[in-house]
Amino acid sequence: MILITRPRYVLLFLALLSLTSISPSSSSKVEDISNGTRWAVLIAGSRGYDNYRHQADVCHAYQILKKGGLKDENIIVFMYDDIAFNPKNPRPGVIINKPGGNDVYQGVPKDYTGKDINTHNFYAVLLGNISGLTGGRGKVLNSGPNDHVFIYYADHGSPGMVGMPIAGDYVYAKDLIDVLKKKHDAKGYKSMVFYMEACESGSLFEGILPNNISIYATTAANSKESSWGFYCPGDFPSPPPGYDVCLGDLYSISWLEDCDKHDLRKETLAKQYEVVRRRTANGYLDSSHVMQFGNKRQSEDFIFTYMGTNPENDNYTYFKYTASPATSRPRVVSQRNADLLHLRYKFDNAPDGSDVKLEAHKQLIDEISRRKKVDHNIKQIGKLLFGYDKSSEVMKNVRTPGEPLVDDWDCFKMLVKTYEKHCGFLSSYGRKHTRAIANMCNTGVTPEQMAAACVQTCHMKSPLS
């Protein structure tokens, strides 16, 4: 009897030994965490009910981190906070990130809200510079050389920049990278992960994020394409009745819903990148290319290193994501057109002859008119600077992958400011033209030449004025 059973025990022992022999990397990550702290900075850079999805994404991210074991003192949240109790919200005090989803607003810290969400405070927070703050609750990223930092930014983007709630305030790619370099030089973290949800978000890192400062970044799109709203009205899957906005963004809900299900001690950043890449690129009528930048070796880190993990997911079995059949492909909405969808849906569903319908119609027509005007302005400025024949070629030029958007970032910032001084602030739609402005710098256009072209274009009456 002993001779029969002993081999079974031996085999069981060897099997257990083989399992432990393949997991030292997992245990080493846990040991690393024990010597440091997880920190997170979450920012929704927009405002307005039509941008519901950005704050919903950020609130959802907070819930994941909280369930993962991060303390509120180590999670810093930027959100305008004009959604939950907005009169248009069908569920006052509640924010959801998917149809039938749970409230993700409850418990979210209000560290920086309203006008306190600005580039100045964002950079001060990243650098741990309390004295540099101009509002908010004074919470900053006091991370040290043993700590792991996660940053998530959801907003409207454009080539070379992402927005802030206040018009004219932008996070420029070069400025952001310079701040991150300063944080690295100050030994302000051991490793950092940056997730960016925005149109043309790849341009924030492409060609300018070094691979030797222990930062791994992924973006919702490459440097020349839109990112996409998800769970939008009139599409499938659609928000519950009463909602006329998109509830989330495709890239964001892909990583958020992945985190909701999995034991993050067993899932690497690389695996999540692949899941998000496949879900964002496949199975939809429109899509974007999720990108990765910086130190790609960090993608082998476990997500647990940065976000912790929900104990309820300990026994979850990982299933590989597969695209939906072509016959049931969900639809997505370009971030830049989500506001138009909101207005159109509001107009279509308002009672005929009602004040609500008349107002929605006016808002829709006004927005379309503003879009036509900025398109006209940029096109006309290009003609004045480069001539009728060459304008389109120069303005639409896209650089070789791996190159930064622009060589002279100070020129880029100056030309954007020059345009806005003479022609008005660029909306989330209008900022799609920042590649054309970057190309002006790349061809040697000076601020004085830009100012002259803007004055001639925007201070003269036109059919679109």
UniProtKB/TrEMBL annotation:
Pfam family, one: Peptidase_C13
Gene3D superfamilies associated with the record: 1.10.132.130, 3.40.50.1460
Alphabetic keyword roster: Disulfide bond, Glycoprotein, Hydrolase, Protease, Signal, Thiol protease
InterPro entries assigned to the protein according to its UniProt record, in alphabetical order: AE, Legum_prodom, Legumain_prodom_sf, Peptidase_C13
Signal peptide range: 1-27
Similarity section: Belongs to the peptidase C13 family.
PANTHER family per UniProt: HEMOGLOBINASE FAMILY MEMBER, VACUOLAR-PROCESSING ENZYME GAMMA-ISOZYME
Protein's name according to its UniProt entry: Putative legumain protein
Native organism: Rosa chinensis
